[in-house]
What we know:
Layout: H1 3-14, H2 19-31, E1 40-41, E2 51-61, E3 66-77, E4 82-85, E5 92-98
Antiparallel strand pairs: 1-5, 2-3, 2-5, 3-4
Helix pairs in contact: 1-2
Amino acid sequence: MTDRNKLICLLAKVCPLPFSTIGKIADYLVENGVTIQKWIPVTERLPDLSGDYLTNTRVRCPSIGCIDDLVDISIYEKSTGRWIALDGDKVHVTHWMPLPEAPKEERLCCGPLESERRI
Length: 119
């Protein structure tokens, strides 16, 4: 199901509007970068590309015998099919999703952004 269709379903549940209006709202949201994110189980599918992903990682604490879940950023290596923590350790990922795009600053003039200026 596309993000547009998912948005239409969600909007239809809470907005008593004609379907054509809901479709226009969904189109507007998609055109402006709104997406529906959900956790993808690694048992269903793995990322198509190597890179950084938001992950739910199963963590074992041998000293106290607990198992816990941790949301973190992990690196997926497509060539090996392995997940690696940012510190280089192998991790047990149960679910993943793509990271959102980085924020973009609007340029108000032709000079560098504040974050690009050197002191």
